[in-house]
């Protein structure tokens, strides 16, 4: 199987839900999310939601606990482990964010199976707040793809794997 690259999306593929919505709903912030949704781009919205959650006492540990409860199809982890054991190179190209992806992959015990993760950058700042940013700064320049969200071109990430 050497030379075979398997590319996964994350939301609705490795987990059975959208990770952003899962965290927002799981922590009880759905109403605020729905109120803010029409007013800003998705990544800005998620960064704002993390700010609001933090201001109301939500911790990184709270977010991690919700992520650990993400619904996973019972065959996904064995499929990932099998493909890795066969020598396939596994990668993720996702419009989720690195913190959510890495947290769930570590929880599932499969993070080491993936050679590359391409997603929206995120980090925990000095105040303990999760910050989420777009993969491409679409406010400065477009990635030029009409098939993908403005903040992340999955097509160019996928093409870079193939060519």
TrEMBL record:
Mg(2+) binds at residues 9, 11. Its cofactor is Mg(2+). InterPro entries: HAD-like_sf, HAD_hydro_PyrdxlP_Pase-like, HAD_sf, Pase_PHOSPHO-typ. GO terms for molecular function: metal ion binding; phosphatase activity. Coiled coil: none annotated. The keyword Hydrolase applies. Substrate binds at residues 20, 95. The active site is at residues 9, 11. It comes from the Eukaryota. Keywords: Hydrolase, Magnesium, Metal-binding. PANTHER family: LP01149P, PHOSPHATASE, ORPHAN 1, 2. NCBIfam families: DKMTPPase-SF (TIGR01489), HAD-SF-IB (TIGR01488). This is Phosphatase. It comes from Gossypium klotzschianum. The lineage of its organism: Eukaryota, Viridiplantae, Streptophyta, Embryophyta, Tracheophyta.
């Amino acid at each position: 199987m050497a030379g075979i690259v398997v590319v996964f999306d994350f939301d609705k593929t490795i987990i059975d839900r959208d990770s952003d919505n899962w965290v927002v709903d799981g922590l009880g912030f759905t109403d605020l999310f729905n109120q803010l949704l029409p007013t800003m781009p998705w990544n800005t919205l998620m960064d704002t939601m993390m700010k609001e959650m933090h201001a109301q006492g939500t911790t990184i540990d709270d977010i991690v606990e919700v992520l650990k409860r993400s619904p996973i199809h019972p065959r996904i982890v064995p499929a990932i482990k099998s493909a890795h054991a066969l020598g396939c190179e596994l990668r993720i190209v996702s419009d989720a964010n690195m913190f959510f992806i890495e947290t769930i992959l570590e929880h599932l015990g499969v993070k080491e199976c993936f050679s590359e993760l391409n997603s929206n950058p995120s980090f925990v700042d000095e105040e303990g707040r999760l910050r989420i940013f777009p993969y491409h700064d679409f406010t400065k320049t477009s990635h030029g793809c009409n098939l993908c969200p403005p903040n992340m071109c999955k097509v160019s990430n996928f093409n870079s794997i193939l060519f």
